[in-house]
Design goal:
Blueprint: E1 3-8, H1 9-19, H2 34-50, E2 54-58, H3 66-70, H4 83-86, H5 91-98, E3 103-104, H6 111-125, E4 128-132, E5 146-149, E6 155-156, H7 158-165, H8 172-179, H9 194-204, H10 207-212, H11 220-228, H12 230-240, H13 266-275, H14 278-290, E7 321-322, E8 326-330, H15 333-341, E9 349-356, E10 364-373, E11 376-381, H16 387-400, E12 407-409, H17 412-421, E13 429-432, H18 433-440, H19 449-455, E14 459-460, H20 464-467, H21 484-511, H22 514-534, E15 536-538, H23 540-565, H24 574-584, H25 587-590, H26 608-613, H27 618-637, E16 650-651, E17 654-656, E18 666-668, H28 680-686, E19 689-690, H29 706-715, H30 718-722
Parallel strand pairs: 1-2, 1-4, 2-3, 4-5, 7-14, 8-11, 9-12, 12-13
Antiparallel strand pairs: 5-6, 9-10, 10-11, 15-16, 15-19, 17-18
Helix pairs in contact: 1-2, 8-9, 8-12, 15-16, 17-22, 18-21, 23-27
GO biological process, one term: DNA-templated DNA replication
EC number: 2.7.7.7
Family: Belongs to the DNA polymerase type-A family.
């Protein structure tokens, strides 16, 4: 049977935009393309996979509708459309026109009404209709031959309507008349929610019948609400009803899909290029080259903040473009000066560092790649101690200590530490794309360059074999060939950093996070670099004394546990402890405690929570004391001295700015943020951290309820402010 697909473009656009609100798709021009991409991907999917006989795209007009005239506050509570979504609107008609599809819009009417009219044409012609939208209002139009296709690629028919509203499709307007619709500011009957409306319509069928049987309805309060808002109920029903007879001159023949071409369409391709939808463009090019218009799966990139299956928000980059960059190795200081002479002052320089060493004090610079143009990078090998390398390093030092060129890094903190070790004061810091990626996508799990290359740039590296080609003779012939695997890798890294800088910079502005990034995160990276390099002194001798003391106390506690148990056993063994507590002493029965189930032994837990419930008995109390002391010794007393650096005599922990989604720092090697403080033994361990000299002291400072104070400041709530 022939099928007509009617797309509510604004509904799809809105959903795509807000699905990616935390990680919007920003092209190199700074345009947010999340919404228009979602619309386009769904449209392409329909054309390729569904192969409809008829297809139309509908849209809302900017003029007030007949509903506004009937009820001036209709949709009055909706927030203004975001500016970066408004910027995408002009592309809707352009894309639809390029595909030679009808773009239906009528002043005074909504897309709902145009779709409703198209569905009426389907009923009259006895063909199937598919409404491409997730808007629940459309459920009133569903029949045995008319369905909805939502953003999850699910078809919603009559059973789906009954599941949502508990009624038949034609009764949806009765439901909305009673319960209203807050998204459209349709009032309904105040105090009547979905459950009450569902019950009333199930019993009486429609609003008119509800009011005809008002005296038979149970509940004085409900009767009063219905009586008071009788007019609102009728008005709301009217506002919720989709008009299926809008005065638009369109026939089925006008929306026939016959002339649409995805594969040999220069006008459409030009728009894809303008929007930078290159993955889709490449795929369509390949299909055109193959001369095939067979169905091909349209893969969608999964949104990190929306895991719903089938969400049309972005492409999965199954066939990413190849990163193209010309890579050269600098051999002399003169060559480097020649390269820099072509770089305009103020232009951003992306630096990719080739380093050695895992400790802040032991970082060593082997070389660096530099990129001022994303299509061309240079690499300097600085590991040698000859005069030429020394002169090149001196030239690099001038650039690094100059404010003339903003420097872009991936891992600014490490760069600051490396250059500090080399006696270089880094100036003119432009950005750190790793921090920028975290700020724009705080829920992301990875921020390494290879991941960001695919995730943000839709690119992949060129395989080494295909990259190993000599540069054309007319391209910087003074640069000699070198070790491809090393210098090409770092040149590529510098190009990736520069490309990411452009895209993430636009994204920071779009999300309003540029100020926090520039004024907090970038300066903090420098502060943390110095903090880590300085490190903190540890009283190793004091901890050694504590270790001896803890050893003695652990021996005593272990013996006490064995005495209380009445037999020799290993307190560190879960299975042996289970037998003592649950099988021999049966403490859970005595204290009426139901232990959690585990997979070991008799499947009854001996964790801290369970033992605390049994702590009325001395044995569980002693075991808890033993475990606490044993953990303190093994985790802190024994381990902390192993992190003391041989040369500095201090601990140099690593603080990560990208370790948490909340913006808090995380600490590792060792973790200095979980040193115990609540017990006397824990406080003794904290006192092992000492000032670096007799003339210095350590200060402990903490914000008092900072989160609540921030809420009070922004909310201006009187109670919060007084507190």
């Amino acid at each position: 049977m022939p099928r007509l697909f009617a797309v509510d473009s604004m509904a799809v656009l809105y959903r795509g935009y807000f699905a990616m609100i935390r990680t919007p798709l920003i092209n190199s021009k700074g345009l947010n393309t999340s919404g228009i991409r979602a619309f386009l991907m769904q449209l392409v999917k329909i054309i390729e996979e569904e192969k409809p006989d008829y297809l139309a795209v509908t849209s809302d007009s900017s003029e007030p509708t007949f509903r506004h005239k009937r009820f001036p506050d209709y949709k009055a509570t909706r927030e203004k459309m975001p500016e970066d979504l408004v910027e995408q609107l002009p592309y809707l008609p352009r894309l639809v026109e390029a595909l030679n599809l009808p773009y239906l819009i009528l002043p005074g009417f909504e897309a709902d009404d145009i779709v409703g009219t198209l569905m009426r044409l389907c009923r009259e012609a006895d063909i199937e209709g598919v409404m491409v939208t997730s808007d629940k209002d459309y459920m009133q139009l569903v029949t045995d031959k008319i369905v909805m296709l939502n953003h999850r690629n699910e078809r919603i028919g009559i059973p789906g309507v009954r599941e949502k509203f508990g009624c038949a499709p034609e009764q949806v307007i009765e439901m909305l008349g009673l319960m209203g619709d807050s998204s459209d500011n349709i009032p309904g009957v105040r105090g009547v929610g979905e459950k009450t409306a569902m019950k009333l319509i199930a019993e009486y069928g429609n609003i008119q019948s509800v009011y005809e049987n008002l005296e038979n309805i149970n509940g004085k309060s409900l009767k009063e609400k219905l009586t008071a808002d009788h007019e609102n109920a009728l008005l709301s029903r009217e506002l919720a009803t989709i008009d299926c007879h809008v005065p638009i001159s369109v026939t089925l023949e006008d929306v026939h899909l016959g002339e649409t071409d995805l594969y040999d369409n220069p006008k459409f391709y030009a728009l894809l290029e303008e929007l930078e939808f290159r993955t889709l463009l490449n795929r369509l090019h390949k299909k055109m080259a193959a001369g095939s218009k067979k169905q091909e799966e349209v893969n969608l990139r999964e949104d990190e903040n929306n895991k719903e299956k089938g969400e049309f928000v972005a492409e999965t980059e199954g066939e990413w473009n190849v990163l193209e960059i010309s890579c050269y190795k600098i051999e002399t200081a003169e060559q480097f000066r020649s390269y820099m002479s072509e770089v305009t002052e103020g232009k951003c320089l992306a630096l990719a560092l080739n380093t050695q060493g895992d400790h802040q004090l032991e970082f060593r610079l082997l070389g660096l790649a530099l990129c001022a143009n994303q299509d061309r990078g240079i690499y300097l090998d600085l590991r040698n101690a000859d005069s030429e390398s020394t002169e090149m390093f001196a030239e690099v030092k001038k650039i690094l200590e100059s404010e003339a060129f903003p420097k872009i890094f991936h891992g600014l903190k490490k760069a600051v530490q490396l250059f500090t070790n080399l006696g270089i004061e880094l100036k003119g810091i432009g950005s750190d794309v790793m921090l920028a990626a975290h700020i724009t996508d705080p829920l992301g799990r990875r921020y390494d360059l290879d991941y960001l290359l695919g995730r943000k740039l839709n690119l992949r590296r060129k395989p080494i074999k295909s990259a190993e080609k000599s540069p054309p003779e007319n391209q910087l012939s003074m640069f000699e060939e070198a070790d491809k695997e090393e210098y090409i890798l770092h040149c590529e890294n510098s190009s990736i950093i520069l490309r990411l800088h452009g895209q993430l910079g636009a994204q920071l502005k779009q999300t309003g996070m540029e100020g926090a990034f520039r004024n907090i995160e970038i300066p903090l990276a420098g502060t943390l670099a110095k903090l880590e390099l300085n490190g903190v002194r540890l009283d190793v001798d004091g901890l050694a004394k504590i270790a001896l003391e803890f050893d003695g106390r652990l021996v005593d506690l272990r013996q006490k546990i064995i005495d209380l148990a009445g037999e020799e056993f290993n307190p560190n063994s879960i299975v042996e402890l289970q037998k003592i507590i649950y099988e021999k002493l049966r403490l859970h029965e005595r204290y009426k405690v139901k232990p959690k189930k585990i997979k070991l032994g008799n499947q009854m837990s001996t964790d801290e929570e369970t033992l605390e419930k049994l702590a009325a008995d001395e044995l569980p109390r002693t075991i808890l004391a033993y475990r606490t002391l044993n953990k303190l010794k093994n985790t802190y007393v024994d381990q902390l001295p192993t992190y003391v650096h041989a040369e500095s005599g201090r601990i140099h922990s690593t603080f990560r700015q990208t370790g948490t989604a909340t913006g808090r720092l995380s600490s590792e090697n060792p973790n200095l943020q979980n040193i115990p403080v609540r017990t006397s033994e824990g406080r003794r361990i904290r006192r092992a951290f000492i000032a670096s000299g007799a003339d210095k002291i350590l200060i402990s400072a903490d914000y008092s309820q900072i989160e609540l104070r921030v809420v009070a400041h922004y909310s201006k709530d009187p109670t919060f402010m007084d507190a």
